[in-house]
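hi! just following up on the protien thing from before. the input was this:
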Amino acid sequence: MQSQALLPATAPFAADQITQLNRVMKTITQAQRQWLAGFLAGVEAISGPQAVPSAPPAARKQPLTILYATESGNAESLAGRARQAAARAGFAAKVLDMADVTPADLAGLRNLLVIASTWGEGDPPQRAASFMKALFAPDAPRLPDLRFSVLALGDRAYVNFCETGRQIDARLADLGATPIAARIDCDLDFETPAKQWLDGALHDLAAAADPAAEEAGAVIHVDFARTPAAGPVWDRSTPFAAEITERVNLNGSRSTAETWHIELSLEGSGIAYEPGDALAMLPRNEPSLIEAISRATGVVPDAAFAESLAGKLDITTLTRPMIASYAGLTGEQRLSDAAAQAAFLVAGRQVIDLFETFPHRLTQEQLAGLLRPLPPRSYSIASSRKAVDEAAHLLVAAVRYAAHGRARHGVASVDLADRRRAGATVDVFLKPNQHFRLPADPSRKVIMVGPGTGVAPFRGFLQEREAIGATGGNWLFFGSRNYTHDFLYQLEWQDWLQRGTLSHLDVAFSRDQPEKVYVQHRMWEQRQRLYAWVEDGAHVYVCGDAKAMAKDVHATLARVIADQGGVSREEAEARLDAMARERRYLRDVY
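and the predicted 3d structure came back as:
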């Protein structure tokens, strides 16, 4: 098959038509192309030159690249919607994942929009780490011809709010690029500011490309709406009420943990999830916490505001901007400077601590203005539709701890553990995760590392692999505290081992011996076989804690490759980077 010429962006077709035509052109043979050319010539000869009125040459659309860095999928979703809005506004727009490009790829671009999420305490999304490293390298390319704007996504609960977007914005300017519209930093409620940013950025890019149109008063109207779907669309504003059909505490009665297996009915929803996806839940706040905040602030909510406090406003998470706003609103001298505000915001402190430590009477409107929207909580789906039909299974660890003299609870996890029973409903919507999918080739081997609730998606993986008759081997590394009390889904794993669906199962129970043993220790013990599987093309999946486990597992994988492959640590890290780009090393960590 010969390499085929592709249609340029200037071809007189819509952007999606060019994409479709190029997809066909890449696959046809020379003989097929010649036949197609003759066929079109024949059609033209039959219809005659007068059959189709001649059209004026199409104006060249301004090329636009939308680059995204995503962790939970929000930036990716916004990038897709931004491309559609830009196309409707007259741009030839394309979307790129930061994981698939290098800074050198930006050198030939003219117009760039960046949508970047921040992960944890100021880190870039995992898939964007290599790009960020190269962007800040001394040999990063100069970009004097590039016009750009950045939308930064983040969470004000973290000190380094929107840090990735801020860094990209500053670095592109350092490399000579021209900021065409001011960066906007978004908290969890990003829909409205994202539209404002896109509106301004597209207008400024169009004006820079065609000053005459700007002088004539041309206006770009951005339609940032999602593309209409054939079926119901469930999202944060319109969730699906899923009935709880079963809930079981999987830990033993003597366990120090509390992990719930929850089965939800999705009948009638049309929610078509895939293994690796997550289900987002809209939780309800703890009633006793609502009462405590009402007492501390003197607010007696009316019916509408009571509902907002119960399920729409975040009454738990304390942020630095909230402390500053509270100090300004009340004139609280003990919080009058940034140092005092930062000192109060220490680990474990929440909204109630602010109101009880520095009590002031508030109005209902003032309290509402201080609180941010209550964010959904996402849980990896622990099932495959091929095994459970119109249902979804979740694995939820109830979060309970004490801090600063008060018992604390996870908002969603304890809502599910304490206040929901079988027969009750939960408001949910799908959070697809295209970057945590099983290999398309069912003969590929799969290595899964999932301690604790991180094992949830791998239960769905095995249900799926068994249902489709996948021939590739499946290997699970699972870890928890105690074998007797905390071996989640123990009988299912053992049944899969007996049936051959699960090829190997290595477990690590950290509290069953004097020295702590974790999954990374089991991986090192199995390094010879582990390396052989990786060399044989196995896909490696890691799910669970990002702060410690994921880093330790990554370091162990690099150590195994270096040891068994006889290469340096740097070469082993490069190998893992290559596997990530090939979608063979995938992580879903939190």
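The longest strand covers residues 240-249.
The chain is about 40% helix and 20% strand.
cheers
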